[in-house]
Design a protein that fits this description.
Keywords: NAD, Oxidoreductase. The chain is 33% helix and 16% strand. The chain is built from 12 helices and 12 strands.
Length: 318
């Protein structure tokens, strides 16, 4: 009987209730909201479900652990070296964010060009101003930094608005939804120079930390709108703030930050050309159902000797 210990504040009652009968018969599923609550159950855990964080001390307790399944795509908060040394398999929830995050990216672009913040402020103040000037997505270029599954979905939706799409990936391999695929420092420079909207969707790894520096931000058009849905540490946040304050770029939408929650002292809170959201771009009422499908597949693969999906390369960090 395989012992599964889930530790997350996310409600996993539906994951428990809807688990296929054959998996229920061969496993025990225990769900706790924290590692402290899980307590002694960790000693016998064969499998741990995590929201993407796992303290190294847990591994010392979980001596039987064989597999960690995260219910997030990011695994940068896991003790990757320790997991690799123990030979523990790690799988993530890559793919569960594609629909909601691509919709969110387009909604931010529309919010910017259609000035919904201005319109809402006018509504609250009972201001009737029909002279507000609007932009359009039509004919604009969006550059997608991190052209994976989410980037592909953003590109497909952007094409529905008659936008052009440039995608940056590691190899520059052409992808169906992109008008152009680029790679390397030269490709990045081309994307930044020629894009009206820039969407960052990079994973957080040792190779992507600080990926965008001041010199990259300075390549953007003064009319550019920058969107970060990746991780706060992929760019120099202070350089971005300076560029926004000095009008070197037009605006930004940020869902992730170097420090979360965003400190009250951050100037980003009070900038009229910035849209802030609290790391919720991947949230959806369908999230648990999508994660459950990955988990059930991998659990069955573990029990029957099949192939798991979303196995993480612990050396690469994704």
């Amino acid at each position: 009987m395989l012992k599964i210990v889930a530790m997350t504040g996310m409600n996993l009652s539906s994951m428990q209730a809807q688990m296929p009968q054959d998996l229920q018969e061969r496993s025990e599923f225990h769900w706790f909201t924290s590692s402290k609550e899980a307590g002694a159950h960790l000693h016998d855990a064969d499998v741990i479900l995590s929201a993407g964080r796992l303290h190294p001390d847990i591994l010392k307790v979980a001596t039987k652990l064989q597999w960690v399944q995260t219910i997030s795509a990011g695994i940068d908060k896991l003790p990757l070296d320790e997991l690799q040394q123990r030979g523990i398999v790690v799988t993530n929830a890559r793919g569960v964010h594609t629909i909601q995050m691509s919709e969110f990216a387009l909604s931010l672009m529309l919010q910017w060009v259609r000035k919904t913040n201005v319109l809402y402020a006018n509504q609250q103040q009972q201001v009737w101003d029909n002279q507000v000037q609007f932009g359009e997505l039509h004919g604009k270029t969006v550059g997608i930094i991190g052209a994976g599954a989410i980037g592909e979905a953003v590109a497909r939706k952007a094409k529905a608005f008659d936008m052009s799409v440039i995608g940056l990936n590691r190899t520059g391999t052409p992808q169906p939804a992109f008008d152009m695929s680029v790679h390397g420092e030269d490709g990045l420079a081309y994307l930044l120079t020629n894009s009206d909207f820039i969407v960052v969707l990079l994973p957080s790894t040792s190779k992507t930390k600080g990926f965008l520096q001041q010199e990259h931000i300075e390549l953007m058009k003064p009319t550019a709108f920058f969107i970060n849905l990746a991780r706060g540490d992929v760019l120099d946040e202070q350089a971005l703030i300076a560029a926004l304050q000095e009008g070197k770029i037009a605006g930004a939408a940020l869902d992730v930050f170097e420090q979360e929650p965003l400190p009250a002292s951050s100037p980003l809170w009070h900038m009229s050309n910035v849209i802030l959201t609290p790391h919720i771009a991947g949230s959806s009422e369908h999230y648990t159902d999508r994660v459950s499908k990955i988990f059930y597949h991998n659990l069955r693969a573990m029990l029957d000797g099949g192939e798991m999906m979303n196995v993480v390369n612990l050396e690469e960090g994704y």
